[in-house]
Amino acid sequence: MDMLNGSLWDKIFKFSMPVAATAILEQFFTATDVVIAGNFANSDRTAAMAAVGTDLPIIGMIIFLFLGLALGSNVVIAQSIGRRDTEGVKKAVHTAVLLSLIIGIAVAVFAQFAVVPILGLLEIPAEVLPSAVMYLRIYFLGMPIILLYNFEAAIFRSIGETQKPLMALIAASLVNIVLDLFFVCVCKLDVTGVAIATVLANAVSALILLRLLLKTDSIIKLEWNKLHLDMPTLKEIVSIGLPAGIQGAVFSLANVVIQGAINSLGTEVIAASSASLILEMVAFSIFSSFTQACTTFVGQNYGARQMARCRVILRLCLLEDVICTGFCMLIVFLFGDRLIALINDDSEVIRLGYIRASIVFCAYIFSLLYDVMSGYLRGFGISFLPSLLTILGVCGVRFLWVAFVFPVYHDFRTLMYVYPVSMGVTAVLIFAALMWCRPSKRFA
């Protein structure tokens, strides 16, 4: 995709939709686990569903930490393309692939010792804890291939290629469904089975993209003999990606704290929250895809020093994001209870799940605003400031809410109000940062 010339409206949309579909399918891996555990487990189905659901914020915390580095790789490659620096692109590609494998192996080993202490902090009901521990341990064994896929996808997106990561993930998703049903219904492995299926399916998507990188004739071709960590490139990737990764990890940590508060309200509330979370993941994937588009398009155009075009990219990403997210909100308000019933048909789970969905989806209008503006700043290489402000706005407010508001009004609805409050505060902070930095003028 030529991001430096021609119209932007259609290109941003064409870039974003496969990214959104890819992110939805990534979430679909764990969503499939929740649904199949909740409907086909051979023991207590609600407990099995709760076990997988309560692990999701922890998985998100670890994944988001290192996806920030994948984003850093995307920005470095995109800026190098804009500067027409072929050697810089090659160094970034090979550094990113090797970095993903090193980090993945380290996390897989460390997590085996850390799972039990982490879950022990979350007030998980006794009937849920053993399955939650097993699922998390198996999932983290697959971290090398999970991170490899995400770094590979970031490499492809830096040149505007968003369909290949999507196709690879479609294949893996089909494998995941088949293996989930096989391990649960045939092998009677329940939560253990869906965890194994998820790891094997992720391996499919990672290997497909690895083969494409090795066979491609484009500038991002991977060559085994050039696989090494280029220190200047690594430093640049880390300087952009680490703040974004820390933001994502702390963001997820705040959600872990909220999950702990949800766990204190009982198994039905955990199941309802897990069911609603699946719908939220879909909407989040859609609006965050425009953030990825904004970062990549701005990165290339900043590299080419086309500053006016960078400002147009921001405005169009915001507009297209508002339209798509608004459509998702309408669907949830009209059919949210029926969608939750597809996941779990317990009447109380449906009622509580719809309460969460209606509140959180209203908050997403604030979330997309600060997310796209943050992506715009990162396209210029400004990563620390939006990360810091997001940590203060989203995470700080959520920590304080759980610590001081929730104990006074100890009910599910009050806990859910933390989402619009924290996201609204963050949107104001990021807008102020954008007005202060004005990168398109500052770097002109």
From TrEMBL:
| Family stated for the protein in its record | Belongs to the multi antimicrobial extrusion (MATE) (TC 2.A.66.1) family.
Q: Which UniProt keywords apply?
A: Antiport, Cell membrane, Ion transport, Membrane, Transmembrane, Transmembrane helix, Transport
GO molecular function annotation: antiporter activity; xenobiotic transmembrane transporter activity
Q: Which InterPro entries match?
A: MATE_fam, MATE_MdtK, MdtK-like
Q: Please cite one Gene Ontology biological process associated with this protein.
A: monoatomic ion transport
Cellular component (GO) terms are: plasma membrane
Compartments in which it is found: Cell membrane
Q: What is this protein called?
A: Probable multidrug resistance protein NorM
Known role: Multidrug efflux pump.
| Organism per entry | Phascolarctobacterium succinatutens YIT 12067
As for membrane topology, the entry says: Multi-pass membrane protein
Span-the-membrane segments of this chain are 56-77, 97-122, 134-154, 166-186, 192-214, 234-258, 270-291, 312-334, 354-372, 384-409, 415-437
Taxonomy, superkingdom? Bacteria
The protein's predominant localisation is: membrane
